[in-house]
Amino acid sequence: MQTIGTNTVVKMIAAAAARIRANEKDLSALDSATGDGDHGTTICRVMDAAETAAKGDTSGKITELLNKVGWDVMSVDGGSTSPLLGSFFIGLSEGAGSSAELDAKATAAMFEAGVAGLRQQTKAQPGDKTMIDALVPAVEALRAAANGGADVTAALRQAADAATRGAQATKEMVAKFGRARNLGDRTRGHADPGATSISHIFTAFAEAVGS
Amino acid sequence: MQTIGTNTVVKMIAAAAARIRANEKDLSALDSATGDGDHGTTICRVMDAAETAAKGDTSGKITELLNKVGWDVMSVDGGSTSPLLGSFFIGLSEGAGSSAELDAKATAAMFEAGVAGLRQQTKAQPGDKTMIDALVPAVEALRAAANGGADVTAALRQAADAATRGAQATKEMVAKFGRARNLGDRTRGHADPGATSISHIFTAFAEAVGS
Amino acid sequence: MVMKKFINDPKNLTPELLEGFALAYSDKVALKNEKLVCRARPKDPSKVALVTLGGAGHEPALSGFVGEGMLDISVVGDIFAAPAAPKVFDALKLTNRPAGTLLVVLNHAGDVMSSNIAMQMATKAGLNVKSILTHEDIAPGANAPAENRRGLVGCIPLYKIAGAAAEAGKSLDEVLALAERFNNNMATLAVALTTATHPASGQSIFALADDEMEIGMGQHGEAGTGRSKMKSADETAAIMVTQLLEAVKAKAGDKVLVIINGAGATTLMEQFIIMRGVGKVLAQKGIVLARARVGEFLTVQEMGGFQMFVAKMDDELLKYWDAPCDTPYMTVR
Amino acid sequence: MVMKKFINDPKNLTPELLEGFALAYSDKVALKNEKLVCRARPKDPSKVALVTLGGAGHEPALSGFVGEGMLDISVVGDIFAAPAAPKVFDALKLTNRPAGTLLVVLNHAGDVMSSNIAMQMATKAGLNVKSILTHEDIAPGANAPAENRRGLVGCIPLYKIAGAAAEAGKSLDEVLALAERFNNNMATLAVALTTATHPASGQSIFALADDEMEIGMGQHGEAGTGRSKMKSADETAAIMVTQLLEAVKAKAGDKVLVIINGAGATTLMEQFIIMRGVGKVLAQKGIVLARARVGEFLTVQEMGGFQMFVAKMDDELLKYWDAPCDTPYMTVR
Ligand SMILES: Nc1ncnc2c1ncn2[C@@H]1O[C@H](COP(=O)(O)OP(=O)(O)O)[C@@H](O)[C@H]1O
Ligand SMILES: Nc1ncnc2c1ncn2[C@@H]1O[C@H](COP(=O)(O)OP(=O)(O)O)[C@@H](O)[C@H]1O
Ligand SMILES: [Mg+2]
Ligand SMILES: [Mg+2]
Ligand SMILES: [Mg+2]
Ligand SMILES: [Mg+2]
Fold it and tell me: Does residue A182 carry a pLDDT above 90?
């Protein structure tokens, strides 16, 4: 696929929501090991809200669609996940600009704006065992692939693989943010639930675009 | 022994307190089966107070000694046991009158007044599975023995045996008073703790007088 | 289950807890004779005094409501055990006044015996004292003889109403008549979910299976009549409030006061959800929720469960319920 | 352990509990937009408003203190989870007034994010809003950076003091300055004994051995630093109050406010015994127990344990602490 438009964006979000729902129990179990055990529930509510907002879009504009998704995600009561992902989607909306179709480079720019939006809400850095550890490498891989001439499908595939590796790598890390922070060393050996969710979301994005 | 005086009364009360202390755990266990499990604790505190009051007597008069015992027992915080036994001892005090030495008949009259004092505080009747089921037959046996010409030692021995039989008989009864009442039929098969205490007290009285 | 409690010597539970309580609320209460919780600023002696008695271990319980507009003295016994009669008599002597004293007694055997003896002593001593017995538990049936019905959380709103009438300068007979009217129009039902440990003995006070609850259990684990499988909050609320409304003969248009009294471990979250369930039944029946309170008033250590209290109110009762009071655990402006 | 709670559908816990709460206290609070707990009789708009936010499941928690003299609006999230930023912004719009609004935020990641976003939205919308962050937990050390220190029960006396200053007509800057002074002179330490079950998931939120306690555990079972064998009430009280007094730099002659905040299952009996232990240490050090409160303000379901709070007070802070207020769970005459 060379470019993505609103229809594809809706498909991507719906696929991500479906994949998150299928993994709800696992994600809560991961959060039980390092945090308070509710991440599966919260990320499901967040992605359900995102899906509903995306499917309900009547503007036909990527930026407006994503802005609505962002606010609706932000409106979910649920600890850290909803402001973080809400800001991510609002960032995507800002990054999408007025384009109706985004090629690989424009997609990379959109996701970079998403990361910037999310990072406004937290001081967490790569290595701190948070969703950032999946998100940052994913978007870096996306940018690298786009700059290297890959199409959207291939670039998102690269991003998904990087997100999955990033989430895996959190196993070796000690949590410095979120409710896991207090467990310190005891978090080692468990993947971060938020990072794992991000890897599911990017994997679903890639599949939705690829298929 | 033909008569009892203050010294013997002190000895009787001290013996009863010692025997109750030796059975504290068992008495609480009985109360656990039918009530709230505190009877051992409470009856110990009651009899400790009785012993201290008796030993501290300086009046040399049975009625004053028992009146002090009664009030001090009554002053123990502890559910039903302290007003019941406090009233019993105050009744004994009233029954003792001004005599310095009590023969078997006078002893029987004293204990009858004790029973009357206790029964002012409760509507429980024989058969209701309370301390009355040991106390009433004990004092009836005491009266019968005294009327039959027995001396104090023999009469108290009869009373102790009747109290023990009375306490045993409560096993077959269903509680109608106290905290055991709510358990109804489930109290069958367990001796009443209060009646068991009374049997210990009379047994100790008889031993103190006999020895 | 092992007992896990912050205590020192189990023998000193009651004096220590009272000391800490009086320390925290020294502006409102003062301890006398170790176990008499008295108002820090005594009531004007021209007004009727209110005294009550009961065991410890149910905090805030009776002593939590000593202060302006409620109780003058709470006589404290030991853990789950009535105070001795001479102490109750001491309290009656302390409040002795021409206006008289009302002694409020909850129907529990030990409390009744101690107060009977204390009342006899007071009468002999020529004190002007009357007493009232609360017995609003409907677990044995709303029509069971009064002597078989325990006094539960209903004593606390009764202190509030009688206390307000006393502050308003009503005579002993008037305060008693008002308290009796309230007493005759109130009902409580308790439900238990999980047991508590007796803080002195460390023993569980009863046992329920993991999926069982029991409606009608008393303040000390006394067995009730309604053991059943766990029910939802709405079902539980509906069963209980229906019986309570029937017991007080409330009909459409009547005004009721409802109190949800947590036993210990049951959360306010749950109590609010129960309250919501009560509200639904009241709305269906057209009965007016005139006033409500939700919280822990009379507890049973860390027991899971609650007491539900309903009283049918008239304008005079509501006036005294709304009157100001200032105690450690109930203040009305 | 199996969860035994009076609930209906676990998905509806928060709206149902809020409905029951608002029903019981309809004279004091009213629900708006399902999860904004507002004063039933709004404050005079010429006075500064106070808004706060936080998860549910900690009842009475923040919403219990909405009313005259304390909070104007409490924005409620879900069980143990912060409310969404747009709801916080809704509350700020509702209280919008020239006198301004103070947003009180407890230092928990979700709450901080939501309130940061809401503050950005408010600033964009031209509202006159300032915010204050409570972070008085000393579990990570009294000198740990503020961002690592959680906001615990200290928010509640802060609402009281800032709320009283607002009622007294102080400006937003004055209210904020006073609140900051209190904020900088308070410290809290929590101790846990037994776990609680998350009422939606039914899972235990942490585990401790039968003979263990943990000093420093957070509001949601977040691990602390001081796991140890069970200690007596006096030992526990002494360890905790000593650290707290040090944290607020209290010295002989200073006046302190102490709050013992039960976590859920720990009885008032125990809390009073702890209070007595605190009193002994204060007496030794010649520090004055100026004011105290003992009870459940911010709970963690049926968790066993408590939070101990100490604040160094001056005359102005005491004046506002003593000022009248009228909320469901704190009333001062
Ligand atoms: N301050 C933070 N910065 C970045 N990510 C965070 C932060 N706090 C939490 N997270 C992410 O959120 C995940 C937990 O989400 P969730 O369980 O829904 O929220 P909560 O921690 O409020 O219960 C963590 O695994 C982590 O990836
Ligand atoms: N109303 C009563 N009349 C006579 N005896 C009673 C009554 N109530 C209790 N008892 C006696 O007291 C005993 C229990 O005593 P105890 O456990 O000390 O008091 P409580 O029942 O207050 O815990 C019972 O076994 C019974 O013999
Ligand atoms: Mg979580
Ligand atoms: Mg007993
Ligand atoms: Mg008892
Ligand atoms: Mg959470």
Answer: no
Question: pLDDT by residue (tens digit) across C134-168?
Answer: 999 999 998 999 988 999 999 999 999 999 999 99
Q: What is the enclosing helix (H) or strand (E) of C51?
A: strand C49-56
β-bridge pairing C49-56 and C101-106? parallel
> Which atom from ligand 2 is nearest to the alpha carbon of C113?
1
Q: What is the chain C residue with the closest CA to D79?
A: C269
pLDDT digits (tens, 9 = 90+) for B104-123: 999 999 999 999 999 999 99
Alpha-carbon span D218 to D237, nearest angstrom: 18
D166 — alpha (psi -120 to 50), left (phi > 0) or beta? alpha
Nearest to D192, CA basis, from D140, D136, D261: D261
Domains within chain C, CATH numbers bracketed: 12-184 (3.40.50.10440), 187-314 (3.30.1180.20)
Pocket of ligand 1 (CB under 6 A): A 31, 35-36, 38-39, 42, 78-81, 84, 122, 124, 130-132, 177-179, 192-195; D 109-110
DSSP symbols for D178-236:
HHHHHHTTEEEEEEEEE--B-TTT--BS----TTEEEET--TTS---SEEEE---HHHH
**Using one digit for the tens of pLDDT, what is the confidence trace for A20-72?**
999 999 999 999 888 878 899 999 999 999 999 999 999 999 999 999 999 99
Return the pLDDT at A97: 94
Amino acid at D263: A
Q: Domain span at residue B21? A: 6-210
Residue D333's Cα: distance from chain center in Å? 21
Q: Based on the structure, what is the number of domains in chain A?
A: 1
Tokens of C205: 């006070």
- Give exposure, A169-197, as e/b (b: 16+ Cβ within 10 Å): bbeebbbbbbbbbbbeeebeebbbbbbbb
Neighboring chain B residues of C201 at a CB cutoff of 8 Å: 28, 37-38, 41
**A66 inside domain:** yes
* Amino acid at the residue A7: N
CA angle C126, C131, C136 (to 5 degrees): 170
Provide, rounded to the nearest whole percent, the portion of chain A with pLDDT above 90. Answer: 86
Chain B interface with C: residues with Cβ < 8 Å: 28, 32, 36-38, 41-42, 71, 74-80, 82-84, 86-87, 121-122, 177-179, 182-183, 186
